Amino acid sequence: MNISRTNGHPHGLRHAPAFFLFLSLLAQAAPRPAPLTLHHPVQDKNFYLLSSIEQTPSVRALIQADPGLAQLAAAKRAALADAPRACAADVECYAKAMRWSDDEIAQARAAFTRLAANPAMARFVEGVLRPSGMFQRYSAKPSAALLETAWEDAARKMNRAIDLFAIGQSPQRMPGPPPSGPPPQAAPGAPAQPPRGPRFDLTSYDVKSPAFARMVQIMAGIVGSDPKSLELFFQPSLKFSIELLLLHGHDEAGRHEPLESGENRAALARIATTPWANYPYTVIVVLGNGPERDGVALAPVGRLRLMLAVREFREKKAPFLLVTGGYVHPNLTPYSEAMEMKKALRTEFGIPEDAILVDPQARRTTTNLRNAARLIFRYGIPADRKGLILTDQLHSATIETPAFLERCVRDFGYEPVRLLSRISPFDLEFTPLIDSLHADATDLLDP
């Protein structure tokens, strides 16, 4: 591709019609049916836009060269470097320094709007962001609008991390619109809504205690002492947000990643040669059940669900069992529902490892289904063929209600699966929906 330049800066495209036709075709392309490459899983899954900018030299250079963003970067670096002295033991002071104000968000958005016309940024949006599926609900947007919306999501998610894990205040969770609607926006004057999973998305320390304030002071001092890692305008607030998560022990989003080279490696290798026509279903999705008591690895109800799943697997209803459930009950449990189910399938029931897929991060039934749909798309399992959702009869009945899908739309802005027929009290047929790939802009533990 030939780019003409004036004074060393992009000025125009020698073959502009072909270039924009190329971008138009890319915009219509489906997300890649492949796992994402994760360098720093907790950050990458929560802030895919920002991680991708860090890892793309041409875009990184554009960001650093923009005068408005350079001004923001200098201000944020200075605020972080000075915070241990200026804030001392006042955690809310650190939070205020690192949060993004509405004016700062708008200033950066305007910069992204300007930069979207640059060919390097256009290639980044169309060649990295859009095919990732992480912004799937914005797939109909043109490049500039996708970039602007992705930035606003990232900025408000950093604010959410700071509000929740620095000062213990849950920011308003903005309900998502139906799939055809605009991106989530808070209605003016709307009452604050609790975060999803309020019983479990908890801080690990008393954020009002002197001990926690000392930890924040030490963390801010260490993060702020490395200016080379803070060159991009968003990096001071990003690093501060991620370290807050880790202070509280919340690395759940990155645990067991990359799954495709670890827990799911054997099954993924078998997917490519699976004779799908020999089975009525592609996968049996087994929903986890977390124990409510400390020290219990696998809940009794979870084991009973496995008994059902193994029976249907041995009847050759599907070539794979997909077990889903994260580190949920009780708070800060060391046990993942899916990992414990996989262990029981291997040791108690003798199921081969290459027949088991795991999602060790889902924290609710809604995300059980969303994450299962994601694995189906990313691993190249035929998405036009039916799968089975398997759970106990009481749980299964709730999934079939209109209220459940309404909750999905309220939480995500879309339905993660299309429910089809019920074939037993324990089994619902489904097909996955592509919007499930979209990264959650509010959930920090299972985005």
Automatic annotation (TrEMBL):
Kindly indicate whether the keyword Ribonucleoprotein belongs to this entry.
no
Q: What span is annotated as the signal peptide, if there is one?
A: 1-29
Task: Provide the alphabetized UniProt keywords.
Answer: Signal
What are the DUF218 domain coordinates in residue numbering?
283-396
CDD domains hit by this protein: YdcF-like
Q: Which Gene3D superfamilies match?
A: HUPs (3.40.50.620)
Superkingdom field? Bacteria
Q: Does the keyword Signal apply?
A: yes
GO annotation, cellular component aspect: plasma membrane
* Region Disordered, residue ranges: 169-201
Q: Name one Pfam family in it.
A: DUF218
Spell out the Pro residues composition-biased ranges: 174-197
Q: Show the PANTHER family listed in the entry.
A: DUF218 DOMAIN-CONTAINING PROTEIN (PTHR30336:SF20), INNER MEMBRANE PROTEIN, PROBABLE PERMEASE (PTHR30336)
Q: What is this protein called?
A: YdcF family protein
> Which organism is this protein's natural source?
Paludibaculum fermentans
